[in-house]
Design a protein that fits this description.
single chain; alpha/beta; D-Maltodextrin-Binding Protein, domain 2; six-stranded mixed beta sheet; 11 helices; disordered N terminus
Length: 312
C-alpha cells in the first residue's frame, strides 16, 4: 500500500505547485536560513527482543542492520512522484514494502535522509548533491542513476537557433548550479564557447566567444517560464513547463540530453545503506520493470532519458 506524506520546511514555497517545486534558485539562501540541526538525530534502540540484545552484545548486530520487514521509505518531489508510485506498487507485488514520502521543497529530502527519517531519496543530480554537502555537511552518497530530465532552449519568436538575431536576449537560471547548465546548453547551441573544463561550474566570466553578442539575462528558475513571452530564447525545464501549462514542453529548439551525465537524477543514501537489500531491490525494479518504464513514458514522453545501461 502506498503511503504518501507531505513535508514542508519553514522556507518552502506554498503559492503554486510550480513555485513549490522550484525552490532551487534560492538554494544558498535556503541552506543558510533553514533552521535544521541535521546532526541532532534521535537515537533509536534496536533492542526490541532479548535475542537481538544478546546478539548485539556479541557484535553480531550493528546500526547497519537493515530490518527486512520494515518498509523502505523513499523521499521525492512532485516532478518524480508518478513513476515512483508505479515502482512502489510493483515492489509491493514482489513482497517489498515501500512508503513514498513526497516533499514540497528541495531542502528537506536531504535533511530527512541525513537524520535517518527516510532511507533513500530521489530528486537530485550530482551537482545539486555536492552543493548540498558543501553547504550543510551531509554524509550522503549517490547509490544508483535514475533518469535525466532534458533541459531545453525555447523560443516564442524564432523557429531555430540560427534565426536568432544579433544581440538576442537569452534568459537562463541565476543560481550557481542551473546557470552553469544553461551556459553549457548555449555552448552546445553554438551561441557561445566556454573555457575548457569548466563544466557545470561555468559562469559568464568563462565565456570565451559570443559571436552573436547575445545578452544573457539571469533570472530565478521559477521565472523562466514567464520569461518565455519576453526573451528571445529561454532555458526551460519540461517538467515545470508542463505544470505551468503555458506552452508545449516538447517544443524546444534544442535539448541537452546525456551530453552531461552529471545531471542524471540519483538515488541517494547514507553510506551504510549501500548494502541495504531493500534499496538494491527497489532500484532494480525502478530501472528494469516494464510497468515503471510505461509510467515514465506516460508521464514524461520524450522528455527524459535513462541514465543507466539500458537493455530495453
Amino acid at each position: 500500500m502506498l503511503a504518501k506524506a507531505l513535508y514542508q520546511s519553514p522556507d518552502a514555497f506554498t503559492d503554486t505547485p510550480l513555485s513549490r517545486a522550484s525552490a532551487l534558485p534560492q538554494l544558498t539562501e535556503l541552506f543558510a536560513l533553514t533552521p535544521y540541526d541535521w546532526k541532532s538525530t534521535m537515537k533509536k534502540t534496536l533492542l526490541s527482543h532479548p535475542v537481538k540484545a544478546l546478539a548485539l552484545a556479541l557484535g553480531l548486530f550493528s546500526s547497519a542492520v537493515f530490518a527486512a520487514d520494515a518498509p523502505l521509505k523513499v523521499g521525492t518531489t512532485a516532478a518524480f512522484a508518478i513513476p515512483l508510485e508505479a515502482a512502489v506498487e510493483e515492489a509491493g507485488k514482489q513482497g517489498l514494502k515501500v512508503e513514498l514520502v513526497e516533499f514540497t521543497d528541495w531542502i528537506a529530502p536531504n535533511v530527512s535522509l541525513a537524520a535517518g527519517d527516510i532511507d533513500v531519496n530521489y530528486f537530485q543530480h550530482i551537482p545539486f548533491l555536492e552543493n548540498a554537502k558543501a553547504a550543510a555537511g551531509f554524509d550522503l552518497v549517490p547509490y544508483a542513476p535514475g533518469i535525466i530530465n532534458n533541459v531545453g532552449l525555447y523560443s516564442k519568436k524564432y523557429k531555430s537557433i540560427n534565426d536568432l538575431p544579433q544581440g538576442a536576449s537569452v534568459a537562463i537560471a541565476n543560481d550557481p548550479i542551473n546557470s552553469g547548465r544553461g551556459l553549457q546548453l548555449l555552448a552546445k547551441a553554438g551561441l557561445i564557447t566556454l573555457k575548457p573544463g569548466v563544466g557545470y561550474k561555468a559562469t559568464e566570466e568563462d565565456i570565451v566567444t559570443n559571436p552573436k553578442k547575445i545578452k544573457i539575462l539571469q533570472v530565478e528558475a521559477v521565472q523562466l517560464v514567464r520569461a518565455y513571452d519576453d526573451a528571445d530564447l529561454v532555458q526551460g525545464y519540461p517538467a515545470y513547463i508542463r505544470l505551468s501549462k503555458t506552452f508545449d514542453a516538447e517544443s524546444a529548439l534544442l535539448f541537452d540530453g546525456l551530453d552531461h551525465p552529471e545531471y542524471v537524477i540519483q538515488f541517494v543514501v547514507q553510506p551504510k545503506s549501500k548494502t541495504d537489500p531493500r534499496v538494491i531491490k527497489f532500484v532494480d525494479i525502478y530501472q528494469h520493470s516494464p510497468v515503471v518504464r510505461a509510467a515514465l513514458d506516460k508521464s514524461l514522453g520524450k522528455l527524459y532519458q535513462v541514465g543507466w545501461e539500458d537493455k530495453k
